Each structure stands twice: as structure tokens, then as C-alpha cells.
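Hey team,

Filing this mostly as a record. A colleague (T.K.) asked me to run one chain through the structure pipeline before their review meeting, and I want the input and output archived in the tracker in case anyone asks later how it was produced. No errors, nothing strange. Just documentation.

Input sequence:
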Amino acid sequence: MDINLILESLVAAISTIAFASYYNAPRKTFMGSFLAGAIGWFLFKGLQVKLDTKILPAIVAGIAIGLIGEIFSKIAKEPVTVFIIPGILPLVPGAGMYRTMYNLVKENYDISIYYGRESLLIAGAISFG
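Output structure:
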């Protein structure tokens, strides 16, 4: 197992806690958010390396985050969105949207369309999951 994947998953989990804390989520939801972020990122990056694509891993990670959110919402008696929204945050294709706009401004339309299409497909896959 790759140590970088584990470290990235830990950083993703910490970012979900920070996001949940920033938006005043109840403290009892932090463990569920932590696990959703860590497992979601682990699945996303692990499958991305194995499958050489970003779409299917985004669907699988979205499904896993949704299931974790449902389980922890029952345990903590909180809405499922308290767990899902922070959990999907690391998966959001922000860099792809940046590259889309950057290349659009630089008039590299083919590259811009490539990144824009990929970003929209990843966002759709996350929401599908």
C-alpha cells in the first residue's frame, strides 16, 4: 500500500473536519465526517491509479460517502447532509475548473474544453454517487 495515498487520505479527512467546523457542524458529527472524507479520498485516488480514469472512482467514492453519511446520520441523529457535504469536499474538481478558465482566457480552446468536460463529468459522477 502506498504511504502517499494514506497521507493524502489523512489530509483529506482533516480538511473535512475543518470544513465541518467552519460551518458550525455539531462536534458529534466530526468522526463521521472524518471517516467519510478519508474513505472517499482513499477510494477515489486508489481506484484512479488502478483504472486510469477519474469518472468511475468518483462514482464509487460518492456512493461510499453517501453510505457512510447515512450510517452516521442514524448513529448521531443528525441530517445526512452534515456528513455528506464535508465528505465530498476533497473530491470537488476545483483544479480542473481552474484549468478550464485559465485555458479559456489564454484562448487554448481545445485544452479548455478537455478540462471543462472532465470537470463536469467528475462533478456529475460525485452527485450520481
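Quick notes for T.K.: Residues 1-91 form one domain. The helical segments are 3-22, 30-51, 55-76, 81-88, 94-105, 109-128.
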